[in-house]
Amino acid sequence: MKKQRIASLIFASSLVASAAHAVDLIAIGTISGTYEDFATETAFPLENGVPGNVLGGIGSGLAYAGGTTFLALPDRGPNANPFNPLVDDTVSYITRFQTLNLSLAPITDSVTGLPFTLTPMLSRTTLLSSSSPLNYGTGAGLGNQIDGVTPLGSGAPVLNSVDHTHYFTGRSDNFDPAKPSTNSKNARLDPEGIRVSNDGDSVYVSDEYGPYVHEFDRSSGRRVRSFNLPSNLAITNLSSQKDVEIAGNAIGRVTNKGMEGLAITPDGKMLVGIMQANLEQDKKKSLRIVTIDLKNGATHEYAYLLTDGSGVSEIIAVNNHQFLVDERDGSGLGDTPLLTDVASAATIKKLYLIDLAGATDVTAIAGPNADLSTYAVSKTLFLDVVAKLTGAGINSYLIPSKIEGVAFGQDVTIAGVTKHTLFIANDNDFLPTVADPFKLPGDATRGKIANPNQFYVFAFADSALPGFVPQKFKRSGDGRDSDCRN
Question: Beta strands of 298-371 (E only): which ranges?
Answer without folding.
Answer: 299-305, 311-317, 322-328, 349-355
